[in-house]
Amino acid sequence: MTFKTRALHRGWAMMSTGIALLILVIVVIWATSIYGDYIKQKEYQVTAVQLSRFKFALKGYVGRHYDKLLASAGTNQPVMVTTAMLKNTGFLPGGFSDTTTTGQRFQAAIVRNAMRTEQLQALIVTQGGSRLPYKALRIISADIEGLGGYVWNNANVTGAMGSWSVPLNSFGLSTSTGHVAALLTTDELSDARNESDRLYRFAVTGKPDFNRMHTSIDMGGNNLNNTGTVNAIEGRFSGNINAVDVTAEGNIRSQQGWLISRGDKGWLNESYGGGFYMSDNDWVRSVNNKSIATGGQIKGGNIRSDGRLSVGEVLQLEQVNSAGGECSSNGLVSRDASGALLSCQSGVWGTHGKVDVINGNNPTCPANKIPVARYWTQAGGSNYGNYCTLQTGWAGVTMPSCESCVNWEKCHMVYSQTWSATACS
């Protein structure tokens, strides 16, 4: 018995395998192309985001410096703004890249609007770097916030999808094909100016300037109510200031007024516990009975000491009185013209320790004096006598009689002459 063996179709198997591999290669190539396009589109999106951020920063910069830029710009003479300028003024973060992924750098030109010269407009155009293909320009310009555009010929900037077009030379700019751009219109920059000048009621994250004044504010006579702490360099008020406590780091000065306190309070030195106050209508008192010291003078109508009065140098009495004159109160002390001390005794000014000689026929001492000796004149004009130390044996004189011979007070002498003198002290 014989068997027939069927031959395998080896050629078809190899062909099917080859087709499968070819399809796989095509899919890989297609996928790689798709992935490459995806990466390219992401790169284009990054460029669009970069330019949008630059545009936003430029808008803030123009809003802040609008008047200064308006004074410098012309209708065809631009003011150029770079990435470095925006970073230095805080409108861009310090780490913001100066160029795109293709090496194109950002630059803006600000000019006056030719139709409305009191207003500004701006154009951003990238410079240098690698030229972008037309497809990239269309994608990037469409993704830029606002009026994105591109340069496909050297004369004009064209908006995304051909939506607008402006000549480069109207902004004083020039560049080559393959660069991206963005336009900031007059209205957009005017809004930026108003936004910059507007004072916001609430804090805006990353925008502290929205809550900051850049000029004086006139309240027109109206109040600022319910404020917390008011921090200022200087305050000027034409009316009253009402407060609970006032603390000053420096001086408190009154030009034409008083430092007025009410009640039984006055001025107090907190560090040492001294000061002055009044608690009645008559006396200015020292807080805590502190002493008062000065190298100058203390002057008043009357000065009274309830304790001991001590003088470190000399006591000078300027008023002059005369012995025998009237005085108002016993115990007063004065001086005469020669400087001798006087005291008020029984309403009459009298000396202390000075002997006055009163001449006459048996003279007597005044009320505030006591006799201590007598002199008499002997016939022939000879004078004899001494203060309570008279010698015996003089003509007509006996031993003096004393009421108190210990102190030789009130000495009396017996005499027979018609003229004599009494020593009074």
Strand and helix layout:
Blueprint: H1 10-64, H2 66-72, E1 79-82, H3 83-88, E2 107-112, E3 120-125, H4 134-143, E4 147-151, E5 156-159, E6 165-167, E7 179-184, H5 186-197, E8 267-269, E9 274-277, E10 285-286, E11 333-335, E12 341-345, E13 348-351, E14 356-360, E15 371-377, E16 383-384, E17 401-404, E18 409-412, E19 420-424
Antiparallel strand pairs: 1-2, 2-3, 3-7, 4-5, 4-7, 5-6, 8-9, 9-10, 11-12, 12-13, 14-19, 15-16, 15-19, 17-18
Describe the structure concisely.
By secondary structure, the protein is α+β, with helices and mostly antiparallel strands.
Question: How would you describe what is shown here?
Answer:
The protein has a seven-stranded antiparallel sheet. A four-stranded antiparallel sheet has the order 14-19-15-16, with no helix packed on it. Among the domains are: 29-197, no CATH class; 356-424, no CATH class. It contains five helices and 19 strands. Helix content is 21%, strand content 19%. It is of the alpha+beta class. The N and C termini lie far apart (193 Å). It has helices at 10-64, 66-72, 83-88, 134-143, 186-197, and strands at residues 79-82, 107-112, 120-125, 147-151, 156-159, 165-167, 179-184, 267-269, 274-277, 285-286, 333-335, 341-345, 348-351, 356-360, 371-377, 383-384, 401-404, 409-412, 420-424.
